[in-house]
Specification:
4 strands; 2 helices; about 30% helix; alpha+beta; about 80 residues; single chain
Length: about 80
């Protein structure tokens, strides 16, 4: 099932070890599934957001939003 995720998704291996956490809005399909598992097998540990950004540099939901300093303690 290809498409954008409507909620955050956790991928775990058969031992329930965390493979990756995918954010809401991430486009997910079989090809990306394979890339994530290949990278996990190479790295041997949980993939970080930096790993996902390296795999999918054009994925908009992985891009950091610039922080606008306004003087108060809220994030915009």
């Amino acid at each position: 099932m290809a498409g954008k995720l409507i909620e955050p998704t956790i991928i775990s291996d058969f031992n329930n070890h965390l493979v990756a956490m995918l954010p809401t809005g991430f486009y997910f399909d079989d090809a990306r599934w394979e890339k994530i598992w290949q990278r996990y097998d190479q790295k041997g540990e949980t993939l970080t957001m930096a790993d996902l950004l390296e795999l999918f540099p054009d994925e908009p939901v992985l891009q950091a939003k610039p922080l606008q300093r306004s003087g108060d303690m809220s994030f915009k």
